Amino acid sequence: MKTLITSVFLLATGSAAAHGSCNLELDAGLRITENSIEFYEATQPTYKIVEDKYLVVSGQLLKLNEAQQELVADYAAGIRAAVPEVRAMALAGIDLAITGITLTFDNLLGEKNQVSTQLATELNNVKSDVNRYFSAGNPISINRNGEDIPDFLDKHFATRIERVVETSVQNSIGSLMLAMGKEALLAGGDMGAFEERMNKFDEQIEHQMNDRAAGMAVQSEKFCDTLVNINAMEEQLKRAVPAVESFNLMRVYTAKVEIVQHSI
């Protein structure tokens, strides 16, 4: 049973990666507001882009030529364009999780059972929080990898999802055990036959979830392209503006190959 539940949630949250998407590692923090994009190292501000065109380093406004100005504007536009994609993928992932929950527990416990209803309600609350977090005008903070500072879509977000699932399942463990007992009876007490029935059930859920994950895979590939483009723009900006050449926001890995960061 534990394997079955785990596979459903891995399918829901990891479908994008399973379809050849890229991985992102942040080497710095990022804060996006209506008027600025600010970059951090070890929680200390490094530089910021103001009004999507002015570059401020160590509190000093840099004088940029036309080509440098264009690079700053393109970089800022690329980062801002990624925000709605992050929001869409977060929402799609939650929807996929809700679908997996419904398929799994409705098959075990019947339609509109307590487990799937409660989990769907809790995850819809998370969806509402995602929408609020990404609403127009809200500042958005994204931490670098490994920082133990809460932001919305980091490990604290994943922990919240896990707690929702664990609490709902624990509260309904009696119903789940009863359902498993019924399945065992249908197998005539033969544990081998019972295991085979559950494996087939697992495969059916996986097949249905993979079908539903196809749309998210397309989103994932598009977002991967967005990340690669932002990374390339960052490298161009670093080469063109010496004041930010030592700074690195992200590393992008795609098809198991790292998009190389240029040494300047």
Describe the structure.
A 6-stranded antiparallel sheet has the order 6-5-4-3-2-7, with helices on one face. Strands 1-8-9 form a 3-stranded antiparallel sheet, with helices on one face. The protein has one domain (2-24, 88-250). Residues 1-20 and 256-264 have low confidence and may be disordered. The radius of gyration is 23 Å and the shape is elongated. Helix 1 runs antiparallel to helix 2 (66-109) and helix 3 (114-133) runs antiparallel to helix 4. It has 264 residues and is an alpha+beta fold. Strand 3 and strand 4 form a beta hairpin. The protein is 61% helix and 14% strand. The chain has helices at 2-18, 66-109, 114-133, 155-171, 173-186, 191-240; strands at residues 23-26, 29-32, 36-41, 44-50, 54-57, 60-61, 140-142, 250-254, 257-258.
How would you state the average pLDDT, rounded? 75
> Termini distance?
53 Å
Overall geometric form = elongated
Beta-strand percentage range: 5-15%
Order of helices and strands: HEEEEEEHHEHHHEE
What is the domain total for the residues?
A: 1
Class inferred from helices and paired strands: alpha+beta
> Unreliable segments (pLDDT under 50, ≥5 consecutive)?
1-20, 256-264
The proportion of residues forming helix, as a percent range, comes to: 55-70%
Number of helices: 6
The largest sheet, given as strand count, sense and whether it forms a barrel, is: 6 strands, antiparallel
DSSP E strands, number:
9
Radius of gyration: 23 Å
Strand order of the largest sheet: 6-5-4-3-2-7
